[in-house]
Write a structure and sequence with these properties.
With about 450 residues, this protein is an alpha/beta fold. Helix content is about 35%, strand content about 20%. It has two domains: about 5-50 and about 375-430, Urease, subunit C, domain 1 (Roll), CATH 2.30.40.10; about 55-370, TIM Barrel (Alpha-Beta Barrel).
Length: about 450
């Protein structure tokens, strides 16, 4: 099979926008050459606009199956903690095949909205009764197969979960499918090496779930097992901060930075409730702050003080209550506007907010997932836009990104390519109908 050639009227390259970009892609799906100012040639695959695909740095794929199920008011105040109780009930009966069906649907929707790599923060490890599978990677295999089936790039982050609260509180029966000791988790990581390797550009990391789910000694031991990035939930809810203070006398981010070797390979997910000093320390450590604005709004978590941070930021879809890369970016900016009562918070003076948001998510997400996303030498992962969409009419350069994020949304995405293979055509995943049919059957079984 010969090299393939793509020609883009405009493309967002690492050093900025360029016109008439001709890209050569190898049989293996690798970008070999990128040349700007080149005319199209016979046989080139053509598109008006191309963008690098976005990294989704934080997903719990199985939670896609409960999207919309937690929108009924309880008898008392609803919060993350009441939502979590429902989530535990939803997950307790899930089989590996059902996990595959739900994850594949989530990954289809990610690709359709412009995500081309997902960081799967995977904490479902054991059978329904809490017993270990004979294969420690049994449920991770379902995640890997969902990625293979849909074509999305995967950074797999098996989660270590050992206790039910700060200070070694015992885990609940509802958490039995998540739990490990360090030796058992080491066997999971070891087993996952060859499983993840079946995907050509997959990355394997680890994720100590949170400070409330691990001891300091366990956290350091688990981080040392990682062949790639390290992700952790941190300071998502005010109650979590208060509980950490009561246990240790320190806030979560401060405690983590004092007791672990946090660096650029770390991603601190939902670092929402931080002080200016904690934000400074995160920035100086080089860690990525990972945010999932749709989920954080859905759960009532709060809004991160982005102006105080100034470091690397990426976005994720977390609970997958609504999967849409452009919506995550829009809500990231709009949350700041609501909190600060000002506009264009992510843009430099005279600069484009859409351009700043997109570049921020590319850089921070790529760092967090151990794989850069760019139209440059590397995997041929890119998104093409429909220039006939009314909200993109007459746009050039970063004005395209402003129109995409703040007006058109993902409806303007026409095609998505992964390793040179088109997985989204006309805005729909090429396997959507089959995967959606299986998903519907799965949900009828789970919710029946």
């Amino acid at each position: 099979m010969a090299d393939r050639h793509f020609h883009f009227g405009q493309a967002l390259l690492p050093d900025g926008w360029a016109d008439d970009v001709r890209v050569t892609v190898s049989e293996a799906g690798w970008i070999e050459h990128v040349r700007a100012g080149q005319p199209a040639e016979a046989g080139d695959e053509r598109a008006a606009i191309a963008l690098p695909g976005l990294p989704n740095l934080h997903s719990h794929a199985f939670q896609r199956g409960m999207a919309g199920l937690a929108e009924v008011a309880g008898n008392g105040p609803d919060s993350f903690w009441t939502w979590r109780a429902l989530m535990y009930r939803f997950v307790e009966r899930m089989t590996p095949d059902q996990l595959l069906a739900i994850a594949a649907m989530a990954y289809v929707e990610m690709l359709e909205t412009g995500f081309t790599r997902v960081g799967e923060f995977h904490y479902l490890h054991h059978d329904r009764d809490g017993a270990s599978y004979s294969d420690p990677a049994e449920l991770s295999r379902a995640i890997v197969e969902a990625a293979r089936e849909t074509g999305i790039a995967l950074t797999h982050l098996p989660v270590f979960y050992a206790q039910g609260g700060f200070g070694g509180q015992p885990a609940s029966e509802a958490q039995r499918r998540f739990l490990h000791d360090v030796d058992g988790f080491a066997r999971v990581v070891e087993a996952l090496g060859p499983v993840v390797a079946v995907l050509p550009d997959a990355v394997l990391g680890v994720a100590p779930h949170s400070l409330r789910a691990t001891t300091g000694e366990q956290l350091r031991a688990v981080a040392a097992l990682s062949p790639g990035p390290v992700h952790i939930h941190i300071a998502e809810q005010e109650k979590e901060v208060a509980d950490c203070l009561a246990w240790s006398g320190a806030r979560p981010v401060d405690w983590l930075l004092d007791h672990a070797s946090v660096g650029p390979d770390w991603c601190l997910v939902h670092a929402t409730h931080v002080t200016p000093e904690e934000a400074r320390r995160m920035r100086e450590a080089g860690a990525v702050a990972g945010f999932c604005p749709i989920t954080e709004a859905n759960l009532g978590d709060g809004i991160f003080p982005a102006e105080q941070f100034g470091g690397a930021i990426g976005i994720g879809s977390d609970s997958n209550v609504l999967i849409d890369a452009t919506e995550e970016l829009r809500l990231l900016e709009y949350g700041q506007r609501l909190a600060r009562r000002r506009r264009n918070l992510f843009a430099e003076p005279g600069g484009s907010t859409g351009g700043a948001l997109y570049r921020t998510a590319l850089a921070g997400g790529g760092q967090a997932l151990g794989a850069a996303s760019a139209i440059a030498q590397g995997p041929a992962d890119f998104v093409t836009l429909d220039m006939d969409h009314v909200s993109l009419a007459g746009r050039r350069g970063d004005a395209i990104l402003d129109g995409l994020i703040f007006a058109a949304g993902s409806r303007a995405i026409d095609g998505v390519w992964r390793r040179g293979r088109q997985v989204v055509r006309g805005g729909r995943h090429v396997e959507r109908e089959r995967i959606a049919a299986r998903y519907r059957c799965t949900l009828k079984d789970l919710l029946g």
